[in-house]
Amino acid sequence: MDIDQQIARVRADGEALARAAESGPLDAPVPGCPGWDVERLLLHIGDVHRWAATIVRERLTERLQRDFEGPAGRDELLAWYREGCAALIETLEAGSPQDDFWFWGPAPNALAFWARRQANETAAHRCDAESARGTITPLTTVDALDALDEWFGLMVRRARAPDGGGRILRLVAVDGGATWNLIIGDRVEVTTDRGRGHCELRGKASDLYLWSMNRQGTDGITVSGDDSLLQVWADNVRF
Questions:
Q1: What domain count does the chain have?
Q2: At 60, which CATH number?
Q3: Are residues 20 and 110 in the same domain?
Q4: Residue 76 belongs to what H/E stretch?
Q5: Can you give the pTM of this predicted structure?
Q6: pLDDT tens string for the chain (239 positions)?
Q7: Helix, strand, coil proportions of the chain in percent (round to 5)?
Q8: Straight-line distance from the first to the last Cα atom of the chain, in angstroms, rounded to the nearest whole number
Q9: Is the residue at 182 inside a domain?
Q10: DSSP state letters, 226-237
């Protein structure tokens, strides 16, 4: 998926997030983010969008502290969120793959990293906003495969789940022909496809992604093998 496609995802999911947020009370709880309501979600994603846009726009070479505070008041907060998302899109569109600035994960260049990171961040929180209203719209297969691939590439930098004991969790996306094998232990690592795992989850890419992000359970996913690994994951692996 190229940079323009990732920016298009930010635009689409950013607007869907706003529509979900404004469709009900801002004090509604967000099931996938314990202790958060929709207001807290808007404050978070509005902060993240401004943070990322500042890094890209100003070509910062070191990590910037996130401290963009949103306003009080329903209408003001919704407008602040939309303004931040629009500014992020404009900044990404104006960027160049040749620009040099800080990024922190695997990517061919800084702009590609931030376009992808913000696309998947916005998609995840769009799902959060929708979950506060009831039903989540699944990610497309292409978007979910990208989100899973990025998530597992970032997760290995810090995830720890010693109760996993080095067992292998295998995820199979039946709609995308993709498989991930994860060693769950003192470190969580992506390993080569060994054709089996101690526990296997088989389902659509969107369901696998939302499960892996602790946004939903295993409805629609076929689980086989040692399902105790599911609780180990839920207790230890969060973004």
A1: 2
A2: 1.20.120.450
A3: yes
A4: helix 74-94
A5: 0.95
A6: 999 999 999 999 999 999 999 999 999 999 999 999 999 999 999 999 999 999 999 999 999 999 899 999 999 999 999 999 999 999 999 999 999 999 999 999 999 999 999 999 999 999 999 999 999 999 999 999 999 999 999 988 888 999 999 999 999 999 998 999 999 999 999 998 877 899 999 999 999 999 999 999 999 999 999 999 999 999 999 87
A7: 50, 10, 40
A8: 22
A9: yes
A10: -THHHHHHHHH-
Instruction: Report the amino acid identity of residue 212.
Output: S
- Token pair, residue 142, equals 């292409």
Contact between residue 17 and residue 129 where contact means Cβ atoms under 8 Å apart: yes
For 8-31, write each residue's pLDDT tens digit.
999 999 999 999 999 999 999 999
Question: Which residues, including other chains, have CB under 8 Å from residue 123's CB and lie 6 or more apart?
Answer: 9, 13, 139, 143, 147
Which CATH number characterizes residue 161's domain?
A: 3.30.1050.10
**110 domain-assigned:** yes
The alpha carbon torsion through 76, 79, 85, 89 (nearest 10 deg) reads -140
Domain-terminating residue out of 131, 162, 181: 131
Burial class (CB in 10 A: 0-12, 13-18, 19+), 41: buried
